[in-house]
Amino acid sequence: MCLDVLELNIKILDSRIGTIFFFPEYLSDGLLGFYLRACIKKKIYISPEQTTLISTGILINIFDKNLDFLIKPLYKVKKKYKIIIGNPFILKNFFYNNELKISIWNCSKKIFCVYPGERIAKLIILTKKKIKFLYI
């Protein structure tokens, strides 16, 4: 069975990606996509009921208008720590001129800590095509 190829233009903005932080780390649950990691210099503490914008260290350009993308929280983090991703919606014609950042909202009563390189979300591509990264 031969799948079509989806080409993703991706720009690495943080030199730790692909060296210290493993990338791309494809999703293991049968979904097409990859994990997004926190590209921060030091750990960040998010107080209860606070929201923080976390860098992913990448810029992505996709020009296929027929594709949908979804940014989702990691289930274990969401359930255990009551962390909500502020942008878990379907994106169409996904084109970023700036770094992709993830909004994290701490809905718990405890301080939540994000460490450099930690998985913070997953980007799911709603397609049956094989993903090919074109580094720009």
Give an overview in words.
The chain has 136 residues and is mainly beta. It has one domain: Deoxyuridine triphosphatase (dUTPase) (Deoxyuridine 5'-Triphosphate Nucleotidohydrolase, Chain A). The protein has one helix and twelve strands. Strands 2-11-6-8 form a four-stranded antiparallel beta sheet, with no helix packed on it. It has a three-stranded mixed beta sheet with strand order 5-1-12, with no helix packed on it. It is globular.
Blueprint of the fold:
Layout: E1 5-12, E2 33-37, E3 44-46, E4 51-55, E5 58-61, E6 68-72, H1 75-81, E7 83-85, E8 90-92, E9 101-106, E10 112-114, E11 119-126, E12 130-135
Parallel strand pairs: 1-12
Antiparallel strand pairs: 1-5, 2-11, 3-10, 4-9, 6-8, 6-11, 7-9
Would you kindly provide a brief summary of this structure?
The longest helix is centred in the middle third of the chain and has 7 residues, at 75-81. It is globular, with a radius of gyration of 15 Å. It has one helix at residues 75-81; strands spanning 5-12, 33-37, 44-46, 51-55, 58-61, 68-72, 83-85, 90-92, 101-106, 112-114, 119-126, 130-135.
